[in-house]
């Protein structure tokens, strides 16, 4: 089953130096762009992360320091990636929790304004876990009856993710071939930031989603405990989370 698209959609996968959204970096990115008429475009980059790749991480994805030493940094390719993904919805595997937040961090560090708010995000892993609760390799075997060769290769994982989503649409009648529906279905929360530290409640108000103020409106916390803002800004939180928090603070100040 082919996707019913109103806008182009890009499926992407990252290989990174680790799993910390705030401190780790991209070492490989593969992007598969699907246009509403079904035509495809793709881009693939190895990236110099400007930091050592831990040996245990390299043993997983097979990319070592010497493999990316002469590759461009993310800053050098950021504008090209932003233009390629402009106006596109975004899909991936575990992308809402990891790939999209980390990509947003890289764009901020590169000082490229990559607008995320007007897009739909489809996390194929979330759909899979709600339906079958397995891994990407198992999903590929289950839905496509194929063995995923070169697992943890960004290009192989990206293509497999796209094929799994199409197969999911063909298998489950309750899934609508509509990007807006799939975006809602593959989201656990309505996030204000990509890391899910701040989410929207049922009244569309930003609330914290962690720590001692979990479930409390951000504006109430900033009013009653002003030091919490400074603690988060100085803490090991993603840059995009800090950006969202600052915007809320500025909005609150301007409304006074």
Automatic annotation (TrEMBL):
Signal peptide span: none
Coiled-coil stretches: none
UniProt xrefs under Gene3D superfamilies: Ribonuclease H-like superfamily/Ribonuclease H (3.30.420.10)
SUPFAM superfamilies: Ribonuclease H-like
Occurrences of domain Exonuclease (ranges): 8-174
Short name of one Pfam family: ExoX-like_C
Gene Ontology terms, MF aspect: 3'-5' exonuclease activity; nucleic acid binding
Tree of life domain: Bacteria
Any one GO biological process: DNA replication proofreading
Any one Gene Ontology cellular component term annotated for this protein: cytosol
Protein's recorded name: DNA polymerase-3 subunit epsilon
Organism field: Natronoflexus pectinivorans
Taxonomic lineage from the root: Bacteria, Pseudomonadati, Bacteroidota, Bacteroidia, Marinilabiliales
